[in-house]
């Protein structure tokens, strides 16, 4: 059980504040972490536990001719070796994101099974081929080394654009690498492009990046023969949503596979939703051996073949624009390289529709993508969920259009911004922006930059002096939107009959609510239970402070625990910037229910009508003031009853359901994100033209995520998101050789931003409440990562403008070698 | 680890070592290839020593060995024979009250998922022992060997400055 009660010093300030919500209360999670007591999954090692290691493919594409495990089995510490053959006899393939693929003219549907161990063929470097189990991790790795695999290598394809040609096909059963494609038109883009004064186009690349949390994947699986069921303790993200990837693979019912995530997970940022392969393999091994089996992924496995890379895109984007600076049309086309299997987060290619025109009014839009497979490790989700590359490509073409018509890029942006009187604003792609003053935000960031020009980092004298040294400073402000609180119904659009959606009725929409539980304990304190997992976002703190306000007690009288996948209903979980909104809505409903029950108990006890009692400050009073009962008294009364009244649960419905402006998006399964956090960025960059190195001198940002429930946590999320955006923009990439060999398999190759590379972040906040949510909060978990790469790229282009290069930042990451080759080309 | 080569491994004899860990003497027979990080986690039960990369980049495994902050994944337990090791578990007082560095990290929200935190706290301790009043640049240099993927470091500067102030008091 995790400790989550705040220390007295934190929660009981000298004069009690009006409300805990809205305050930057320090977190209840911290104490156990700071003292080293927190138990992460790597720290869980039950008695009698064995350890698993994996034999992985060294080839990107090869037939598996033979697996010889005899030597491994002879090792004195070896307990088990399993290969695909064993799995196929006893278990199922893992569910994939695109379940069935229609091929050829006949439209025949073909399955695309992904076995947890490669079956007959390997499709990426690092793909597991066999599992071994031994007495400890060191021995397990020794045993893995003794498994001999004979391969017949095949030509590989490791480039998304090339994969579209189908010269090398990753899955011969479907005959093509393009496993999903859609073109969607909103308004009349064709006419807009014909009529506009100019059409501007650009090609932009987004290199393969990902979250790379400091903690790798881990699992401890225990099969219980007596009940024929499994306990799977692991650090998977969304354990109540994606548990099907585990129980379906094992061939069991949901109730027989208890997926439990520790209170502390060492970061995920979306990535760990896809670690189910490990959960399945450890569970299978445990069933075969009838003992607990543990797997701790190592960093090389994680980077090379851990199924956790993310978006990897090539964009061709066009904008139709008039001489007067009106954006007329947008045409987006891209290829996303999903690696060897199209796993669950395939809808990353669709999420950009929720912010398709960013903060601009553009009525006519075409959106088209090809989702392709290659010989690389499979994609997972990452903070931003595919929106980050879209915003980057869009902001690049906005700058290109401004150059084309000879207008100042900031002025061009301002002219096309959605204005406050247009709120709520329905995008052509049918999602709705809730509230905000975008022009005021742009004005504010411009003011800040003006100050920098006046004796600050951008003072003309300083800029000129630096330029003499070959250091080019510059900035280009840009505007940002963070879509929040995703609905769940739209997420299976690609597994639906898309034509039928056009005539789908609103009644068919099926959303997952947020589930929250609480109980009154004997001593009058309250314990709440979250049905979602956390990985550093401070959900325990948030719920205790919100619940304290609703119940009019102190946060220190509340602690917060977690439910496993069997005890919790299926629900969405911590993703898509949802939790602040969903947990606050659920907390309000839950508290109301608990108060009602407390009053009912008291009325029963005093034998008076319910109207004669009232709840206040953690006690129920008779309204004539003659008697009162504390929460502890009520707990005692309740304990005597057969059915406990003070155990309550509440399901908070998705907030967009009750607003008909979202009906069309819901019906047609377009992304529904009812909150739009917004802002503007201005990172001041300095490019050393001699080395191609970019330094961000300061990152200015103005942000608005509605009501801030805990401003300290909000700021922390923005800091972290921006730091990840800096890494994406300048450092990080999972590069591949043409033959499919990965170039970044250690943290010496995949460069994470350190304290030396993350600049000072100067952040201002405004608070425009959302009209759609219980507390006015908007989703906030992904900002920074969504917008910083775009803003850094536009600033790099602006800094290098005097050199008249052709869009130096046309590829992310903007690595030194890329910039140098652009500069060299221009010099020649 | 993933290889299709074969090669028998003959485990060498365990060696007996004695290490002072958080003030207590620990004697154990260990395989020569046992990493110091794994020794501290499994033999000593000190899970606050986190392991994020096992190749010396992330700094999650940072401990003090004879006063110096070191990455415990980069050495073997046998190399620590006779050494004094301090981990994050050794920082709080016996009565449970937090060390000023721990307090400062808490008060400034310098941790989110917390996986890097032990390493940062220990690295900060070494930094402040050597330099009780570091500038921002000195903080940057002192903590450049530790990665945090969550906080963007902004609050970590503040934590270090606040801890320094507390410790100077
Ligand atoms: S685990 Fe030692 S530096 Fe990363
Ligand atoms: S708090 Fe998560 S890595 Fe630092």
UniProtKB/TrEMBL annotation, chain A:
Q: Where is the composition biased (Basic and acidic residues)?
A: 490-509, 817-828
Q: Where are the transmembrane segments?
A: none
Keywords in alphabetical order: Molybdenum, Oxidoreductase
Q: Where is this region: Disordered?
A: 1-28, 484-509, 804-828
Gene Ontology molecular function, alphabetical: iron ion binding; oxidoreductase activity
- Domain Aldehyde oxidase/xanthine dehydrogenase a/b hammerhead positions: 35-155
Task: Cite the PANTHER family for this sequence.
Answer: ALDEHYDE OXIDASE 1-RELATED, XANTHINE DEHYDROGENASE
Q: What is this protein called?
A: Carbon monoxide dehydrogenase
Organism the protein comes from: Natrarchaeobius chitinivorans
TrEMBL record, chain B:
The family database entries (PROSITE patterns) matched by this protein are listed as: 2FE2S_FER_1, 2FE2S_FER_2
**Which keywords are on file for this protein?**
2Fe-2S, Iron, Iron-sulfur, Metal-binding, Oxidoreductase
Q: Where is the 2Fe-2S ferredoxin-type domain?
A: 15-91
**Official protein name in the record:** (2Fe-2S)-binding protein
InterPro entries attached here? Answer: 2Fe-2S-bd, 2Fe-2S-bd_dom_sf, 2Fe-2S_ferredoxin-like_sf, 2Fe-2S_ferredoxin-type, 2Fe2S_fd_BS, Beta-grasp_dom_sf, Diverse_Oxidoreductases
> Domain of life here?
Archaea
The question of whether Cytoplasm is a record keyword is answered with no
User: Which CDD domains would you find in this protein's record?
Assistant: fer2
Keyword check for Iron, yes or no.
yes
From which organism does this entry originate? Natrarchaeobius chitinivorans
Q: Name one Pfam family in it.
A: Fer2_2
Q: Name one GO molecular function term.
A: 2 iron, 2 sulfur cluster binding
């Amino acid at each position: 059980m995790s400790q989550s009660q705040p220390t007295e010093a934190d929660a009981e300030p000298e004069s009690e504040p009006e409300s805990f919500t809205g305050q930057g209360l320090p977190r209840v999670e911290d104490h156990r972490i700071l003292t080293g007591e927190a138990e992460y999954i790597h720290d869980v090692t039950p008695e009698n536990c064995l350890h698993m290691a994996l034999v992985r493919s060294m080839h990107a594409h090869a037939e598996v001719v033979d697996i010889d495990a005899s030597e491994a089995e002879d090792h004195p510490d070896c307990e088990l070796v399993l290969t695909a053959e064993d799995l196929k006899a006893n278990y199922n393939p893992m569910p994939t994101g695109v379940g069935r693929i229609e091929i050829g003219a006949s439209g025949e549907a073909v399955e695309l099974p992904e076995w947890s161990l490669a079956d007959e063929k390997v499709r990426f470097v690092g793909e597991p081929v066999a599992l071994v189990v031994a007495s400890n991790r060191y021995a397990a790795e020794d045993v893995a080394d003794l498994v001999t695999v004979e391969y017949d290598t095949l030509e590989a394809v490791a480039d998304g654009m090339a994969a579209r040609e189908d010269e090398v096909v990753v899955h011969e059963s479907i005959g093509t690498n393009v496993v999903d494609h859609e073109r969607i038109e909103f308004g009349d883009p064709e006419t807009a492009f014909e009529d506009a004064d100019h059409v501007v186009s650009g090609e932009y690349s987004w290199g393969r990046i990902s979250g790379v949390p400091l903690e790798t994947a881990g699992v401890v699986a225990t099969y219980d023969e007596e009940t024929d069921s499994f306990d799977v303790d692991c650090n998977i993200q969304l354990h109540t949503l994606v548990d099907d990837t585990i129980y379906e693979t094992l061939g069991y019912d949901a109730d027989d596979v208890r997926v439990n995530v520790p209170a502390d997970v060492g970061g995920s940022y979306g990535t760990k939703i896809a670690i189910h392969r490990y959960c399945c393999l450890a569970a299978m091994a445990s069933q075969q051996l009838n003992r607990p089996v543990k797997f701790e992924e190592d960093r090389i496995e994680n980077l090379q073949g851990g199924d956790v890379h993310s978006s990897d895109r090539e964009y061709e984007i066009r904008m139709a624009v008039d001489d007067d600076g009106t954006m007329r049309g947008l045409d987006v086309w891209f290829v996303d390289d999903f690696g060897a299997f199209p796993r669950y987060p395939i809808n990353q290619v669709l999420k950009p529709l929720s912010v398709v025109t960013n903060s601009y009014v553009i009525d006519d839009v075409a959106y088209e993508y090809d989702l392709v497979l290659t010989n690389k490790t499979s994609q997972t989700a990452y903070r931003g969920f595919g929106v980050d590359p879209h915003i980057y490509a869009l902001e690049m073409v906005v700058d290109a259009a401004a150059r084309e018509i000879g207008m100042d890029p900031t002025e061009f942006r301002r002219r096309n911004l959605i204005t406050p009187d247009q709120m709520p604003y329905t995008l052509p792609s049918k999602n709705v922006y809730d509230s905000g003053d975008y022009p005021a935000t742009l004005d504010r960031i411009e003011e800040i930059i003006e100050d920098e020009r006046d004796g600050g980092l951008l003072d003309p004298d300083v800029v000129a002096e630096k330029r003499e040294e070959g250091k080019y400073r510059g900035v280009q402000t840009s505007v940002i939107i963070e879509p929040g609180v995703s609905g769940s119904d739209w997420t299976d659009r690609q597994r639906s009959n898309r034509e039928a959606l056009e005539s789908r009725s609103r009644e068919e929409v099926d959303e997952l609510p947020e589930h929250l539980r609480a109980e009154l304990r004997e001593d009058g304190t309250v314990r709440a239970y979250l049905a979602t997992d956390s990985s550093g976002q401070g959900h325990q703190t948030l719920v205790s402070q919100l619940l304290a306000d609703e119940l009019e007690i102190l946060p220190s009288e509340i602690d917060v625990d977690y439910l496993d996948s069997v005890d919790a209903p299926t629900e969405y979980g911590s993703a898509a910037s949802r939790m602040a909104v969903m947990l606050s809505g659920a907390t309000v409903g839950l508290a109301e229910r608990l108060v009602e029950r407390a009053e009912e108990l008291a009325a029963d006890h005093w034998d008076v009508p319910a109207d004669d009692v009232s709840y206040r400050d953690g006690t129920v009073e008779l309204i004539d003031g003659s008697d009162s009962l504390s929460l502890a008294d009520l707990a005692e009364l309740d304990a005597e009853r057969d059915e406990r009244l003070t155990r309550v649960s509440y399901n908070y419905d998705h907030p967009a359901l009750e607003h008909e402006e979202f009906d069309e998006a819901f019906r047609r399964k377009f992304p529904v994100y009812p909150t739009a956090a917004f802002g503007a960025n201005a990172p001041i960059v300095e490019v050393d033209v001699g080395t191609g190195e970019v330094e961000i001198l300061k990152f200015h940002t103005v942000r608005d995520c509605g009501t801030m429930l805990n401003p300290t946590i909000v700021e922390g999320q923005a800091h972290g998101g921006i730091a990840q955006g800096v890494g994406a923009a300048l450092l990080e990439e999972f590069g591949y050789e043409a033959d499919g060999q990965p170039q970044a398999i250690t943290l010496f190759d995949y460069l994470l931003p350190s304290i030396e590379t993350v600049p000072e972040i100067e952040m201002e906040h405004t608070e425009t409440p959302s009209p759609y949510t219980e507390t006015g909060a908007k989703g906030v978990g992904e900002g920074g990562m969504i917008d910083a790469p775009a803003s850094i790229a536009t600033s790099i282009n602006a800094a290098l403008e005097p050199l008249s290069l052709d869009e130096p930042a046309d590829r992310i990451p903007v690595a030194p070698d890329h910039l140098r080759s652009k500069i060299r080309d221009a010099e020649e | 680890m993933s290889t299709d080569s074969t090669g028998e491994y003959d485990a060498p004899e365990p060696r007996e070592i004695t290490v002072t860990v958080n003030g207590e003497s620990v004697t154990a027979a260990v395989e020569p290839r046992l990493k110091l990080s794994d020794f501290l986690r499994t033999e000593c039960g000190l899970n606050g020593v986190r392991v994020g990369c096992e190749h010396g980049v992330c700094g999650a495994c940072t401990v003090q060995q004879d006063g110096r902050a070191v990455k415990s994944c980069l050495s073997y337990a046998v190399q620590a024979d006779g050494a004094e090791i301090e981990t994050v578990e050794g920082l709080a007082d016996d009565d449970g009250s937090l060390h000023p560095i721990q307090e400062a990290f808490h008060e400034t929200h310098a941790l989110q998922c917390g996986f890097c935190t032990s390493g940062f706290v220990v690295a900060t301790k070494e930094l402040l022992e050597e330099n009780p009043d570091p500038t921002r640049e000195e903080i940057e240099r002192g903590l450049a060997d530790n990665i945090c993927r969550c906080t963007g470091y902004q609050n970590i500067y503040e934590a270090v400055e606040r801890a320094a102030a507390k410790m100077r008091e």
